[in-house]
Records
---
Amino acid sequence: MRPTPMRVVSGIQPTGNLHLGNYLGAIRNWVRMQDDVAASGGQCLYFLADLHAISMPHDPAELASATREMVAALVACGIDPQRSIVFNQAQVPAHAELQWLLNGTARMGWLNRMTQWKDKAGKNREGASIALFTYPVLQAADVLLYQTTHVPVGDDQKQHLELARDIAAKFNNDFGGGSEVFTLPDPIVPPEAARIMSLRDGAAKMSKSDLSEMSRINLTDDADTVMQKVRKAKTDPEPLPAEAAGLEGRPEAQNLVAIYAALAGTSVADVLARFGGQGFGAFKPALGELLVEVLSPISARFNALRGDRAALDAILADGSGKARALAAPTLTAAYAALGLAR
């Protein structure tokens, strides 16, 4: 059942207070993939993982609001709902259905080894939700449902894709009857998958959960706010080095240089060739101006879209309808393979 054209599927949890890390770490690469895959005759599906979100304590109203806000962010950053399928899991019941069917194939030992389960459950595993434990099976369903050929993954998601492939291979072997019910998706490691750190602590990832607003650049920040945050970003007293090796042991300096390189579409070496030997008094204004140049159009579009609930709901409804149609044949094949009458 492997489709001939490339089909890419990726999801993102709907979180509020979207920031520079979300953009450079994931969304910008989605826009690039949309263009590259479409040019080759393939297809991209991007979904809001609202079913995954309920594996942890959450506020229902905030989840609904954050889901729409994430749609606004994707479109503002360049995702085109006419070229890519944009939807949320909850409007495509096949995700939950296939997860249940795959639960019979997944093994407790496989899930117990998942590092995300260990990290998120912590020491209170008895108090964690079943949804958190079976989270990787839903992730497998998310991609197997669409006969996905490729999944973009970072280092923290490689284990999950490997599990999805293991589940698919075992299901095909046990129930395929000589045919391939599920395509085994291959990983794509996005280029320049920037890991953006806090502006107040170069050892901590930029996060909306940080209590300090000064730790992150939000997509809603205006130009003055961006410049102020960059100006007050934590640094050290030394000038920038001429080579990347000189950034070792200087996490804040390394982070700011990495942000500049990612925004400019260049290398850290090129940034240091330009700014090496200069202090942060010269570098920070240049970084702030580049941030404003890149983010201002996105911020303007995002702020305009996020208040248009009808338009955002229409995007999700249209994308979910397309996703349901694509998912139907695979779900039907899975039911039939298991001997379940529908």
---
Amino acid sequence: MRINPDEITRVLREKIESFENLPNLKEVGRVIQVGDGIARVYGLENVMSNELVKFQNKSMGIAINLEEDNVGVVILGEYKNIKEGDLVERTHKIVEVPVGDELVGRVIDPLGNPLDGGSPILAKKTRPIEKKAVGIIERQPVNTPLQTGLKSIDSMIPIGRGQRELILGDRQTGKTAIAVDTIINQKGKGVYCIYVAIGQKGAAVARTVEKFRQYGAMEYTTVVVASASDPAPMLYLAPYTGVAIAEELMFSGKDALVVYDDLSKHAVAYREMSLLLRRPPGREAYPGDIFYLHSRLLERAAKLSDDLGGGSMTAIPIVETQANDVSAYIPTNVISITDGQIYLEPGLFYSGFRPAVNVGLSVSRVGGAAQTKAMKKVAGNLRIELAQYRELEAFSQFSNELDPSTQAQITRGQRLMELLKQEQYSPMPLEEQVIVLFAAVNGYLDDLPVEYVKKFEDEFLSYMKKKHFDVLKTVEQTGDLDEKTAELLEVAIEDFKEKFKVV
């Protein structure tokens, strides 16, 4: 049998040409142990930390523990039908979520899937959930106010765009109410809001979303939900999804506000995952990196420099305390990461003072720089008056006879406290806050019975809108309360007081 050299050449050429068409190789491993939402996988030698992996039943997981002989994977979603020996495939992707304008007005889960029954989200961009926070050079000082619409906060514990302000207090003291009011108050102010609900009941989240719809806040808000019935990995992911969505807005030169409600449940979910992954427990059984978990999340809030577009991301984390214990592990951690805290006290809440802000224990380490001149002029005296009132109130309980000056300070303090009460879902514009607080700190309410303060406030604001709208407009446009405006305001208050009837 003769071999034709031409034929050999042709065969060799064909082989060489088809050499590039390699089979589609995938790196796969096998499940060696599974249970409680955690899988141990053998064989994924090149897997990256925080990489998404795909199970045989189409469930996804995140490779979190990279150990010597296996990988600890937390399973996102259903894990009951994953069994020993199942194949696990690498995706070569770090966990990322959809971001962009397509998410505005939507309710989503931490992976970006819609939960509001609307159309699928076809976002053009995605963003990794973990990203290094911007450095000092890329930031600028916080200098623009973010109005909450709440008198007690905007006057004494102001929040600036790019700040991180913690809200903490026992359960059922109105923490979520402050965050919801702040989001409602951003209407027309060009601030995009992201509300992250972590470990809450589905019914409670549905009520909050309904309130957003009712007050027109869903037009600029995205709600990320990991409810109480979701597995721990989803609760762990939720705030990182929120921050990734906000970061995209910030780098587009926009202002974003993220509310994490709440980080104590987030810490508990992370502790559950860590203990199941056999990580060594530390204080209160939390893993050693629990501080880093929250610091790398909150540090991403910033006011960017003008070179980067001047966008901002303001973070409002919420932390629940047990029996007023501010010195517990998670509260102290988050207090030390943030630029101030708003402390809500059950005693004030149950006595009818709402929002139940304890002005003595609350602080804003940035706000003064991000406060309008008008509010600074009014609020400077307010804080001192209230501090003196609290001191004298405690003292007056042990004394029957008080000298006139002490009695006058207590009278003023009682009226200020009454004025700072505010109904939920009724945030107040800055200029209205300024004029009512001006009336109070300048003693115009001192001769009114305490129970008439609310009536005075409502009727005075109506009177100003009808008769002296120019004063409100000046304060709104200039952000200042100059001498001329203050004089006009004093005349208006005196005119109104003559007509105001205490019946």
